[in-house]
Design goal:
123 residues, mainly beta, globular
Amino acid sequence: VQLQAFGGGLVQAGDSLRLSCAYSLRTFNDYAMGWFRRAPGQGREFVATINDAGTRTYYEDSVKGRFTISRDNAKNTIYLQMNSLKPEDTAVYYCAASFLRSGAATESSYNRWGQGTEVTVSS
């Protein structure tokens, strides 16, 4: 069982990026999923989460209105659409699978993590 995140890159402030995370689990749609990030020199922080059915989402305050998390259960994939990117969004972004059906904002609610994909936003 693997999580594979991709889509990071170097962009300018104000640009958009879409991150994707594929999860090779047959029961993908039984679990909430989330995105976290780790900025240089800082700890990993919550970004966004989506419940198993994709009907409820929750965001960290600094990304509300700019980022959108979504999922395609037919493709076992979640997405993070990031608009109006800011230099402070620069981080390594991680996708994670929870053992819960509802979304969760705490790392302890996730038991499977993908490798990160790096996002750099220049000013």
